[in-house]
Write a structure and sequence with these properties.
single chain; alpha+beta; 2 strands
Length: 96
């Protein structure tokens, strides 16, 4: 029985499968010649941490500048999302 991993369109997943065979038309067998590190992103659970961390940001105990690489006004939020989608920005800060 084959273990199935679910990936979205455009994702690449790597599985170590003993005695691998092609089962699906989208399967590929590859030989890893060198190891590398991959960083994957996804939606951050901001609401889960905002109450705890926002006071530290506002008081200067945490420097969000290490994460944010663009600042936009509330009117520029759509442009900020577009910049992240085009990979022109990593994370955009909205400043009132």
């Amino acid at each position: 029985m084959r273990a199935t991993m679910m990936y979205a369109a455009g994702d690449v997943g790597v599985e170590n499968v003993p005695d691998a065979t092609l089962v699906e038309p989208t399967d590929a067998l590859i030989r890893i010649a060198r190891a590398c590190v991959t960083v994957r992103g996804g939606p951050a659970p901001v609401r889960a941490y905002i109450e705890e961390l926002l006071p530290d940001v506002l008081e200067g105990r945490i420097e969000p500048g290490l994460v944010f690489d663009r600042v936009v006004s509330i009117e520029e939020v759509p442009a900020g999302y577009q910049a992240m989608n085009r990979l022109e920005s990593i994370k955009v800060m909205v400043q009132p």
